[in-house]
Fold:
Amino acid sequence: MRRKQKSVLWLSLTLSLILLGSISVTAQEALLLRYPFDEGVGDRVRDVSGNENHAMMNNMDDSAWIAGKEPRFGKALDLDGIDDYLTTDGFFSEPLDGDFTLSMWFTGTPGRRARLFQFRTGDAQMVNVRIIDDILSIDDHGGVQAEDSGNVIVTDQQWHHFAIVRSGKALIAYLDGEQHMETSLQDVVAMDNVSIGVRDRDGTQDDYLPGKVDEFSIYAEALDIDKIRFLMEHLVFPVENASNPDPADQATDVPRDVVLSWTPGKFAPPVNGHTVYLSENFQDVNDGIGGIATSTNSYSPAKRLDLGTTYYWRVDEVNAPPDSTIFEGDVWSFTTEPVGYPIENITATASSTQNADMGPENTINGSGLDANDLHSMEPADMWLSGNEPLGAWIEFQFDKVYKLHQMWVWNSNQTIESLVGFGVKDVTIEYSTNGTDYTPLGTTHEFAQAPGVSDYAHNTTVDFGGVGAKYIRLTANSNGGGMLNQSGLSEVRFLYIPVHAREPSPDSGATDVDVDVTLGFRAGREAAKHDVYFSTDQQAVIDATAPVATVAETSYGPLS
Structure:
């Protein structure tokens, strides 16, 4: 019987008191206003959130109504850059003084200063988002100003998505689904109106937006980047459908014992209001085969999921009788954790080196590999030994002992490889935990020859079978050609099985941590229990002499 491993977590935390606010509403419920701009006629833009925060169109006629970004966007507004603008003056029933998120689509015109929008409280200017020199900037007329660090040109007359999030005094801007810039307000001032497309201060008007606007919405919540990206794709959080999947759609490295959860639809009843579909087969989920009813907005799979596997899932929200309407959800996916993870902290040494450019470090530093793990033919991206009649060796040292899964090998791949055969062929592999006592890994191993062409994928995989090692030594008994007494490698990668605890919460080195914190971590694979060492003495934690608590769950606390 395989012996169960113990996962040991070493933590050293600096603790201090902090008061944390919490968001108690979902994005669906926090919708303050939404302008789809789909009217097509008239001088008023209707707020479809149900909050009656409608907007007035100023100096525009029916010619301003145009087609939206794409058919599913419906219509949009085209502002002339001369005197067109929209305002919500007088329509906020209560000033918004908490966190919020604004989301919109827009286009800009090259070479034109322009104002996307501004927030105001009465006659006081609060926040302005402007296009200056073809890039975005934020200011609050209190000395705080930020320009985008990436200098992304937004006046290319293409549609761009923009969102700004206020969380306390922090303002975070996102462009096309990526964080763009961040600044802070001098004061948190309540907002009771918004103007779109104009600067209007002290009786003067300039900086009108010559461009298009669509899908303008404000949420009374600081949305995270995943929700902002959801808005880009879906335009609004649906009130009937399940949303905000956890794990997020297309997430990777998901634990095998994951609990699926989501934000429920607004009308789902408390009993059997959700039907969950989960499978490795996309078509089965898409066709609604094998659904399981649940009364909660979470689901634990009946058995532990397979490693390195992509799963598809969907949640249908089912109305209560008598109508029992089914709101079919989107198909989401995630991929479970792989069998092995790459070891990152490695040092390489060798018995000899052809020259300084072809040292052993080239086998572990990624030189020559592209984004698809395909290797080049450049000699300076590889290791090549000197002339050694008795066989060259190369050794790899890790930062600690790992339970090894596999080694991937990219052999020497110079253009003359097919003629000379520098790549190692018959290899003795030895492993050690202390760098002194070595154990052979089976008998001699044979490494496949590289083709000597670009875009070379690794073509040798060595299975370590879970042995524990800190040192690996490869000794070349022969090379692929036999003409010269030199041996080389392009790259090696070691994959380990994660039996150590990892991903601590709070993060290592975190500050301003609540004194009531509950420590959390991701368990080492195969662990049956966990020894948690906790102390203000870092060395005592390292030496495992600190007080220890043995727990079955992947958490410990609260500590107070």
In short: The CA atoms of residues 141 and 521 lie 44 Å apart. The longest strand covers residues 393-411.
